[in-house]
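For this section, I looked closely at the sequence of one protein beside the tokens encoding its backbone, which the following lines show:
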Amino acid sequence: MQIVPTTFLALAVIVALAVKGPYRGLWLFLAVTPFGAAAAFNLPAAGGASIIMRDFCALALFVLLWMQKDAPARLLGSMRPFRPGFYLLLLVVFCTVAALFFPRLFVGQTEVFAIARVKNQSSIVSIPLRPTTGNLTQLFRIYIDAAAFFALATVFRQHPDGKVVVKGMAAATFVHVGLGILDVLSHDVGLPQLLDFLRTANYAMLTEVSMAGLKRMVGGFPEASAFGYYTLGLFGFWLHYWLRAGRSALAAWCLLLTAFVLVRSTSSSAYVAAMAFLVAYAGFAVARHLDRRINRRSAALTVGVAVTLWLAFLVLVAAYELVGPVSDFLNRALFDKLGTASGVERMSWNAQAWVNFTETWLMGAGLGSMRASNWLLACLGSIGLIGTALFAGFFASLGRAPAPAQLDPDRAAAIGGLKAGCFALLISAMLTAPTPDLGVFFFALAGLASGLSRGAVIESRRELHRGMRDDW
């Protein structure tokens, strides 16, 4: 195990979480999630793998919950049949089997694109399928994801307070935006190494890359695409919460800040995913209101957003045709992306992932055995039809999780916002995710949504029974 400067920061956060507990310490855990390039420690013996600080904190949350009274019974309550935790539990079991046995079962039967590390530099190479350290590291990350989900789902099922979640998301937003702005400003004033003490993971750090003369914003992450992916989750949450929670200055400011850094990230995948998310979100909103009257505020917002987007589109088209730097930037970020060497290479990964899926009898080559550039193909190629179906069950049950608004409309808005954030992250993963791992932040949002939803339902039933007794 290799100790790095951020190891001491990680230990300090763990101590603070132990003092506050998983419930009151939620804001601290979420505030750590933007540090995507900060390692708690590195593992040279495991191919140079890094345990990221937020992963370490997610494990700490689970351990802290496990140490509490009746922890096993409380955790089992988050795994009830046909709810999100049930499908996630089955998925973890299947991923374990897939990671440990599939590479041996199908050894040599298909070629895979796998990651290779040489002197902390990673590259994707084509090799015959065989067991690698990637199987263990990816399995460990799935365990971390599950730990984050079950810890937060259990805690907030028993304490379904939406305000605590909103404060935690605000803390994450301010830290994330602050790191992004500091990253750009430090470059502009000639101090590009200012944030290097936070970038201790064994990743390729693409922190000084420019696009059309504009420095790409990476903040606490190793590259702009990872920064954009995280930003999309925040943007999805605040968009829904701002629309549903009424007049909230905090939500308005957080939405504006996340929209700003999303645009400033210069991540083409984030741009495309954001457009797809906005279209899908608007479609769901319209479908939801087809059988009911739309209130005046929602109608005004819908018209205002539609007009603003149309005007912005006209301005963008005009700038693309008339302003050279704008056309250069858009060509580099969007229109010429698939024609680049990187785009062609990533398409070859996806094509090979489908071959892996078919050549392993639809079972997959094993978790961590291969890489793609599309989440769905990465799932099919590594955990096959069964694992992908379990993921689909998890998404469907999470999407159906109720958000009762009778007792606490603000909590209902928070539940919807968390699900919107997960949806935005999933859309982004469909474009670029190399493995089935959607990240700790995704599963933290999903755990909070599941816990708040179930806790709200239980609370509503208690109020109903109390009212019936009072009437009797």
Notes: The first helix runs from residue 5 to 24. The chain is about 70% helix and 5% strand. The mean pLDDT is 86. The chain has one domain: 81-292+338-471.
